[in-house]
Every structure is written in structure tokens, then in C-alpha cells.
Design goal:
Elements: H1 2-14, H2 19-34, H3 41-50, H4 57-70, H5 73-85, H6 91-104, H7 110-127, H8 132-143, H9 153-162, H10 166-172, H11 174-195, H12 205-231, H13 236-253, H14 259-292, H15 295-306, H16 310-327, H17 330-347, H18 352-366, H19 374-383, H20 387-394, H21 398-410, H22 413-422
Helix pairs in contact: 1-2, 2-14, 3-14, 4-13, 4-14, 5-6, 5-12, 6-7, 6-8, 6-11, 7-8, 7-19, 8-19, 8-20, 9-17, 9-18, 10-18, 10-22, 11-21, 12-13, 14-17, 15-17, 16-17, 16-18, 17-18, 18-21
């Protein structure tokens, strides 16, 4: 019966059914045919799956990001990053990465980074004479930093599915996110040396100060979110609400937000949230079926039966996640695989918070790989180039990201040192 449930799920995914329907529908078939539990269990488990206070952070972070984009703060972020690192060889490539790191503290979504900053970054790099392929590749790779540095929508979903501390997950992603930026900057420096890319701005204390003052409202957003969580003033959910309030204030101050635009942004946020929560609801009943039938325990035992070497098993899990990321959307991958892979990781002695960072980074790399690379699809529309060309250009930039993935997988303090300090009692 369980085998038939998996067959139905994969069949629905293959024919293009929404992932929520694939998860919930296959689980409903199991409940109906097995007669193990009453039919109303389906609705009960789906409702219980989304009846979670931390999940409230999702609509508020999405709304905050949309409001920030509407306020036109992306230009201010880009200008500040240009004043900080634009004087380096291949300056706009470094600016691209720096702007993504700053924007990561606002949006929490790679696609939002690619769509919001991507338009500005690719146009600026083209105007400065950079190769279009290089511009797209740097923009795509740097956008993956967004869901690693807090706040992070995938981390919220993982935290709910794994019953892990979202605050710890947020803080655990901070150092890996900076490492990603550093690794990508080294790659940009290599290309700048090889292709003789110019320095795009002279370093000036005056320009740095002016751009900092002009961008201070935007730069203060990560301070509110991250600082509030670290200091204990906010829970992650409350930090998301504070970010929305701050974004609304900025929109009114800059006069970029009126009632009509606010309604449009709210409707867009509601639509995106509904899709995400429907996936979570479908995954909740699916995960419950797996747990009730001890599938997760058997899967863990099956994995460990081959070898008990922690390092080999972690490598296998990474390869599996990278493959899944090529074919499946991030939220769906997290909701399906967390109940299956987390027990394996915990048997290996991996902290759930550490494993959450590993999983999210794997799936972010998947956003850059065909056939379902969502970031690539966004940037093909922005840059007006074929999908295949964008994928080929981005391929070399997977190397620094994979190196960071291996580092955080096998050197636990890169993820766990900062949460241990911040949340030390």
C-alpha cells in the first residue's frame, strides 16, 4: 500500500500536478484504501500541519520583501555596495555579491534577490562592458546567498518540519552565507584577472559616507531583523512583523507606496503564501503517513546498514539532495525529504540545526541547475538569453558553492559556533 502511495505521488509529479496535490492526494489514497484510520484524519493532519505560530513568519517576510522592492531600496543597496567594493578589479562583480549579502538580510528568498537586484545588476554590468554571460552567472550564484543569511523562508519551513529552533537556524546560516560570498568573490577575482576586467569606481571615503547615509534606511532592515532576534527582543515571527511595519514606514516616507499599490502587493503576498502553506499542509499528512508506518526509521536503518561511516553517509545525503534540487522546487523538497533524511542525520550525531543549513544550501545550488533551476528561469527573462546559455555560464560558479557546502558539512563549528554563543544560557 505504501509502495502504491509513492507510485501515485511520483506519477502526479511527472504529469505536472501541483506538488501539494501530489503529496496530499497520494496520502489520501493511502488513508482511504488502508482503512487504518478514519478518513477525517486527512483534514485533521493537514490543518494541524499549518496550525503553527512560526509559519506566520512566511507571509510577513514575503510582504516585507515586496514592500522593500516597491520602496525602491534595491538601488540604494547597489550604490552602497559599489562604494564599498567597486574599486576592486572586476568591481561590479564584487558589488553584485555584496548587494546580495545585504539584500539577503531583507528578503530571505533567492528568486526575490534575482528578480529584484538582478535587473539593476545585469544592466549596470552590461553598461560597464562586462560579458553578459559573466553578469548572469555572478547574479545567479550570488542570489543563492539570500536564503542562507537570515531571514530565510526555507529555514522557516525546515524548522517547522523538523521541530527545530528557527532562531538557531537563522543564526547558524550567517557564517556559511559570508563564506559563500567570500568564495564567489575569489571566483570573480580570478575572472577579473583572466579577462582584465576594470575597477569600476575609485575608493572614496566621501562616496562611501554619502552612499551609506542614503542607503541607511535599507541597511537598517537587517539590523532590525537579525539584531532583534539575537538580542531576544523578537522571535523570528515577531521580527518579520517588525520588518513589515518598518517597510510600510519607508514606503510612506519615500512616497512610493499608495493604497492601490499596497493592495496589489498584499494580494501577491497572499497568493504566494497560500501556495506555500498548501504544500506544507499536503506534506504534513504525507509525513504523518511515513511516521505512522515507521518508514523514516526503516529508511535510516537501510542507509546505515551499508556503512556507519558518518562522512560517507553525509556525502551520500549531499549527493541525493543535489540531485533532488535539480528536479524539485525548494519548499517541496524540504517538506518531503526532512521527515525522511533528518532521522538518518540524527543517528549519525548531526544536530538538526546543522543539518538544516546543509539541506537548504544543497537546494539553493539546485536553483542553478537544469531542468528546474528557478533562478536561471528568472534571469533568462531579465537578460533575454536562452535558458541553456544561462545554465552553461553559471556552471563554473557551482564550484565555489560546492566547496562551501563540503566545508559546512564536515566542519560543524562553521554552522554551530555562532548559535552556541548567541543562545548560550
Amino acid at each position: 500500500m505504501l509502495g502504491f502511495m509513492f507510485f501515485v505521488m511520483f506519477f502526479l509529479i511527472i504529469i505536472g500536478a501541483p506538488i501539494a496535490i501530489a503529496l496530499g492526494g497520494s496520502s489520501a489514497i493511502w488513508v482511504y484504501l488502508s482503512k487504518a484510520v478514519p478518513d477525517f484524519t486527512i483534514l485533521h493532519r493537514m490543518v494541524m500541519g499549518v496550525d503553527s505560530f512560526p509559519l506566520l513568519a512566511i507571509p510577513f517576510f514575503i510582504l516585507a520583501g515586496n514592500l522593500m522592492n516597491a520602496a525602491g531600496l534595491t538601488n540604494q543597496i547597489f550604490n552602497f555596495a559599489k562604494a564599498v567594493v567597486g574599486w576592486l578589479p572586476g568591481g561590479l562583480g564584487h558589488v553584485n555579491i555584496g548587494a546580495s549579502i545585504i539584500f539577503a538580510g531583507m528578503s530571505g528568498a533567492a528568486v526575490a534577490d534575482a528578480g529584484g537586484l538582478g535587473t539593476i545588476e545585469i544592466k549596470a554590468m552590461n553598461d560597464a562592458g562586462y560579458d553578459l554571460d559573466f553578469s548572469v552567472a555572478v547574479t545567479a550564484a550570488s542570489s543563492t546567498i539570500g536564503p542562507i543569511i537570515p531571514p530565510s523562508l526555507p529555514m522557516v519551513i525546515y524548522g517547522v518540519m523538523a521541530s527545530a529552533s528557527i532562531g538557531r537556524l537563522f543564526i547558524a546560516g550567517f557564517i556559511p552565507g559570508l563564506f559563500m560570498g567570500l568564495a564567489l568573490a575569489i571566483m570573480v577575482a580570478y575572472y577579473a584577472h583572466k579577462r582584465h576586467y576594470p575597477r569600476d569606481a575609485k575608493f572614496s571615503i566621501k562616496n562611501l559616507w554619502v552612499s551609506f547615509i542614503q542607503g541607511l534606511p535599507a541597511l537598517f532592515t537587517p539590523v532590525i531583523i537579525i539584531g532583534g532576534i539575537i538580542s531576544g527582543i523578537f522571535t523570528p515571527t515577531e521580527a518579520a512583523i517588525a520588518a513589515v511595519v518598518y517597510a510600510l514606514i519607508l514606503g510612506l516616507v519615500y512616497r512610493t507606496l499608495d493604497f492601490k499599490k499596497f493592495v496589489a502587493i498584499s494580494l501577491e503576498t497572499a497568493e504566494t503564501t497560500a501556495v506555500i502553506l498548501l504544500i506544507v499542509a499536503g506534506a504534513s499528512i504525507f509525513a504523518w503517513v511515513l511516521t505512522a508506518n515507521q518508514v523514516t526509521e526503516r529508511f535510516a536503518a537501510f542507509f546505515i546498514s551499508f556503512t556507519e561511516n558518518k562522512y560517507i553517509l553525509l556525502l551520500v545525503i549531499n549527493i541525493l539532495l543535489l540531485i533532488v534540487g535539480c528536479f524539485m522546487e525548494t519548499i517541496a523538497s524540504i517538506t518531503i525529504l526532512t521527515p525522511v533524511l533528518l532521522p538518518v542525520a540524527m543517528k549519525l550525531g548531526v544536530d538538526p540545526v546543522h543539518f538544516g543549513v546543509i539541506m537548504v544550501l544543497n537546494l539553493m545550488i539546485g536553483l542553478l541547475t537544469p531542468p528546474v533551476g528557478m533562478v536561471l528561469f528568472v534571469l533568462t527573462r531579465v537578460a533575454k538569453i536562452p535558458f541553456e546559455r544561462a545554465a552553461k555560464a553559471t556552471f563554473p560558479f557551482l564550484l565555489p558553492l560546492l566547496i562551501v557546502l563540503l566545508l559546512i558539512t564536515y566542519i560543524e563549528p562553521f554552522c554551530m559556533w555562532l548559535p552556541g554563543i548567541v543562545f548560550a544560557k
